[in-house]
Amino acid sequence: MADLDHSSSDDISVDSREETSQDSKLEFSEDEETLITRMYNLVGERWPLIAGRIPGRTAEEIEKYWTSRYSTSQ
């Protein structure tokens, strides 16, 4: 029975980590937002170049942030 209890707690902790990582990807600090805006104004939609200036962020995360925040379609 101890093994069953242990595996259940592992499943719960894995789910919690996944939710936390998804939430944190969409949250950007004020400094990151400022840098993304400034870099976008300089280089346009060159997401990998912008991501290279922000440690721990991928081009996909930055593009997703930008399109969700500053979508041009209305």
From TrEMBL:
GO BP field: anatomical structure morphogenesis; cell differentiation; plant epidermis development; regulation of DNA-templated transcription; system development
Principal localisation: nucleus
Biased composition (Basic and acidic residues): 1-28
UniProt-annotated location(s): Nucleus
Organism from which the protein derives: Salix brachista
Gene3D superfamilies assigned: Homeodomain-like
Name of the protein in question: Uncharacterized protein
Region (Disordered): 1-29
Superkingdom classification of source: Eukaryota
Gene Ontology terms: cellular component: nucleus
The HTH myb-type domain, residue ranges: 28-74
Keyword entries, A-Z: Developmental protein, DNA-binding, Nucleus, Transcription, Transcription regulation
Record-annotated Myb-like domain positions: 20-70
One MF term in the entry's GO annotations: transcription cis-regulatory region binding
Keyword Transcription regulation: yes
